[in-house]
Automatic annotation (TrEMBL):
Lineage: Bacteria, Bacillati, Bacillota, Bacilli, Bacillales
Record has Zinc as a keyword: no
Protein name as annotated: Transcriptional regulator
Annotated ranges, domain HTH marR-type: 8-147
Keyword terms: DNA-binding
The keyword Translocase is assigned to this record: no
Length: 159
């Protein structure tokens, strides 16, 4: 049963229905190579991998929290879970013992390689399904929607 929220504004209703249908698909819950890892933990692994490109000694908790836009206390339990699953190592910095650096283990490297492969496969599938032109249009439209939402949020904060 379709729920009509927008009244007789069919254009707005179609947009709402499209967003809701994507949300209901729960594609982030599709089989993943990350087994018992939470999606938030997989995101942390992506950011660790990215941070290691800049500093091979490891990524600090504060750097991770900054990159992800969350607080350090949010990151810490995720790192602890990843460490208990053998995906990361926490090491004290050689120059400043108060600083903790995080590195991927070999298992973590393999894990993130598979996760990246899975992500690439999904988006390549969408690209192949839509074709080059529609894929470019979709990306542009999503970027515009994102910009619109950011502008609206900024306006609402200034009111």
């Amino acid at each position: 049963m379709k729920i009509v929220i927008m009244g007789d504004d069919l254009k707005a209703q179609r947009l709402l229905d499209a967003f809701n249908s994507l949300r209901r698909v729960e594609w982030h819950k599709m089989p993943q190579p990350h087994g018992n890892c939470k999606l938030s933990e997989v995101r942390v692994l992506f950011f660790i991998k990215q941070g290691l490109r800049t500093d091979p000694r490891g990524v600090t908790i504060s750097t991770l929290s900054s990159l992800m836009g969350v607080t350090s206390p949010t990151i810490t339990p995720l790192i602890k879970n990843l460490e208990s699953n053998g995906l990361v190592l926490r090491l004290n910095d050689q120059e400043d013992r108060r600083v903790v650096r995080v590195q991927l283990t070999e298992t973590g490297e393999e894990f993130i390689r598979k996760a990246i492969g899975s992500l690439k496969e999904r988006f390549q599938g969408i690209y192949n399904f839509l074709g080059e032109e529609k894929s470019a249009q979709l990306a542009e439209l999503l970027e515009q929607v994102h910009q619109y939402i950011l502008e609206r949020q900024k306006e609402e904060r200034n009111v």
